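Sequence in, structure out.
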Amino acid sequence: MEADLPYLKLRAQRKLSRSAQIIHLAVGGQSFRVKVCALEKATNGATWVKLLDAFSQRVELEAHLERELDGPTERRNAEREKVQLAVRSPDLPGFRGTTVDVSETGLRLVTADLVPVGVRVRMEIDDRKIGQRSLDISGIAVWSAKRFGDTYQVGIRLLHPA
């Protein structure tokens, strides 16, 4: 299972239609009743769905998804903070992205552009949430994955953590 809320990639026991429907979603040993709409087929028999409603369990579902997806492969050595900041790179023409989460040692971006693993990326973050007009940082792409539609998520390890 992959998640990029409000989108999920899952393997359903029955074929999902493109109309809104209520399904039971099992995550980390717990079942959630959710309303979804199938969007497009993914690899390995999975389907991308849009989460329309998790009824009163959205926060609990998000927490379970995060734990399940991070699971035993968690390699971070710094606490993450979920924050959305606009990012651009002067080294990659037209590159724009948005942070999903940041830590002292790295960040995760959503972008329309594929960033190959191993590429050094100089980034300018411009958002008043950080209390500065612009922050220049450099990092290396340590993983990159295609997500729903034409978007990618990229894990960046900072070269000079602050």
